[in-house]
Fold this protein.
Amino acid sequence: MTAPRKITLTINGTVRSAEAEPRMLLADFIRETLGLTGTHVGCEHGVCGACTIIVNGEAQRSCLAFAVQADGATITTIEGLAASDRMHPLQKLFHECHALQCGFCTPGMLAAALDLVGSHDRLTTEEIRTGMSAVICRCTGYDGIMRAVTAYADQLGKLAPAKG
Amino acid sequence: MREITGYVGKPLLRREDRRLLHGEGQFVGDIVLPKMVHCAFVRSQVPHARIKGVDFAAARRAPGFVTALSGRDIRNVVTPIAGMQVSIPKGWRDRFHYHIDVPAQQILADDKVNYVGEAYAVVVAEDRYKAEDAAELVEPDFEVLEPVVDVDRALKPGSPVLHAEVGSNVISVMSTKKGDGAAALARAKHRIKRRYYHHRYAAMPMECRAVVADYDIRTDSLTVWSSTQVVHWIRKEIGSILGMPEERVRVIAPDVGGGFGGKGHVYPEDVLVPYLARTLRRPIKYVEDRFEHLVNSAHARDNFHDLEIGFDDDGKIVCIVDDFVIDSGAYSPVGATCAANSIAHLLGPYDIQNYEAKGTLVATNKTSNAPYRGAGRPEAAFAMERAIDIAANSIGLDPILMRLRNMVPPERLPFSVGLPYRDGVPITYDSGDYPQALRRAVEELGGLENFRRRQAEGLAAGRYLGIGVGCYVEGTGVGPFEGASVRLDPSGKIMVAVGANNHGQGHETVFAQVAADVWNVPIDQVVVTTADTAAVPMGYGTIASRSTVTAGSAVVHASAKVKDKVLAIAANMLETPTADLEFRDGAVGVKGVPDLKVTLKEIWWASRPGWDHKRPPDMEAGLEANHYYEPPTVTWSYATNAAIVELDPDTGRVTVEKFVAVHDAGILVNPLLADGQVRGGLVQGIGAALYEEIAYDENGQILMGTLADYLLPTADDTPPITVIHQEIPSPSNPLGVKGLGEGGAIAPPCAITNAVSDALRPFKAEFNATPVRWEQVRKVFAEAGVSTPRGRG
Ligand code: FES
Ligand code: FES
């Protein structure tokens, strides 16, 4: 075990510093060291996507990175989307479309959807379906999630007609 | 029977959502307590071995080490959980031949390990990383034994026996009959026997299991947070095994990331972690990782049905004889439940006079098998629905028409089946219209004739399309009971607590809808607590599609008791007879006189103990009541699932073009959430049919250790799905509801295998085992010498 290193990053608009052993996963650093437990860990090996967060503007699985790799990064987690008494438009759509049941996949779903819609100018529903396959949901059967993300793309004027 | 209107029946958005959408949910893994330590389990890497010793010497020197225990260390201190965690009523025992001898699992294996993943030691350290480091240093001394890796081997003379105390690998046998199956078979014009195999897979919630425990020395009490579906069961086991009054054990399931049955019984960790908290006098946390979940949390299904169907020239089924074996794995914590369910559900929506069924549970050196969404029903439906397709095809009758000829028609409901349910009560299908569900499902796919035309045209052009259906009935809302506690708070709010646990179903919303209507208050005036043993004295839990029926009814009855007192106090305050009063908008008022009313808050104040209250003379203070609803028996949901598939001759790929479910769960308290429950179940069933599988090699080694090996369906794997709800009310409970948690997962495996077999009818291929693998489909085409039609890409 090597000595802990000091890590400084900007998370949800706040600069935070803390020590972490080099082997500490970014997901554990966020959840345990920084106390932001909205990010979930469903597999620890990069498959389920529940741990997805936004690092320097891009969706990333926080169980596949070490905390030390995020030194200096700017990160958004589910806690950073909107203040507790407000709702980000995507959160609102997830609520309205019944896009969550147990809510365990939800942090990853929100991050994946923000990245997917944010990084495209146009998206068909099929592209949304494929893009959202980055995160596994065991509860909903994806129907509400698809409706929510499609409506979000539409709100931003990015929904393309399905390819014939 | 239905007296409630207002919120019930409306697609209300969920009150649970806000916290979960902000990352403010509280899952067990999120809980942090001062001075908390962490544990890691040491699990067997071999399927079968005698434990000669466990060496902690190196582990003890690891940084942050706190303590370690082996099975032998706790052998007489932390005794096993009962081998079978559910009880069987006399009414069932009287009608069944049975022998149940389910072995108990040690909290930590002390003499033998019986599957890869079984824990034989636990290590506690200052943090999770350190606990895992130390656990890796634990040295077992094992004498490896020959493993029992399949049921055929397990039943052969001379096979190693897992549980010496049972004496053989048969841990349960049960059978029952109606009419005379053997005689009817002998007389039947046609008879077809096959082996139908429903494979091994698992609930696989996205949150693994987790337990946090905190011991309070002052009150000698334990608070335990567990990611479970059954807080009251856990409290009972902790109380009895650790020798504490149940009153001093509080078990809470906070936000739970899915269960589906996999968290529906008490696991050894649920008892051991609290024991460690009490011993160490420090809070302690255990969070299972995905590998542990795959190898140690319960698996499901793994049934072989040798089923013979007898039928006449018209396709009328005259008898069913089924002899099935369940590969139970090493233990069977919910005992014979799945076998009993399979026997009770096998006849499905059909009127069949002669029936014999026998189920045998066999122990093998694999992870324990326990109920998962459907719990015995998907297996039974799979065998039955495949048998009908094969039978129909053998006499040139369309399988869908054969079903219509055998279904119980709606005018014969309530229909007495002639078998007892698991609760001991004779089965009576209470309400519904089975043929209508089947017809609607097929119509939704474009109609049978249309499809057969498309199929023939496709075939001529080298395209392989198939249609398949799966029909089932499901006993829901099973007893023994569910508890609810209803109390009027000084604020005027209605405080409702239910024994049913919430892990995604939206109970906080659903039971608020029920209570708001019963009390005629705005829904915000209802506060709902779930899954906390301190909030309701006795409860059962969220398993077996039962919460809306049982907990919903308990809320209605508990409320009625409190409402009677509230009304009497209001009558006293308003000096008006109760007959002239009504509950309206959070108050009790005089009928027809809008201004004359007292609010619930004022009524609480008038009810309080002490001087100057306004209770009628002789009325005791306190506006609270518990009710334990004991359902007379189950109520019967049912559905038809139907699918159209297309097969790719080159790759064997199975594409589900369209999937339809016509489902009846009676009155839907919240149609939005009900729809979500059914859809979630359907996609799990589709996963079971096509993707998910837990396999073992010939040495008993499990082959699935990550979610990259255990394939869960993603959005891309999910076909277009239509869900139609036939809301035919149940006459059996005050809300007119039937259960719906499990239904979705029951029939996709039969609908899809039937559709695949239908597409392959030109080659007489039968798919009588799940999952359908592409390579098997491709093999059928290859053997038939089918080449790719030109011009397709
Ligand atoms: S926890 Fe990171 S992908 Fe599953
Ligand atoms: S809502 Fe439970 S895993 Fe997606």
About this structure: The first helix of chain B runs from residue 17 to 21. Chain B has three domains: 209-287, 301-478+632-792, 479-629. The mean pLDDT of chain B is 94. Chain B touches chain A through 57 residues (CB under 8 Å).
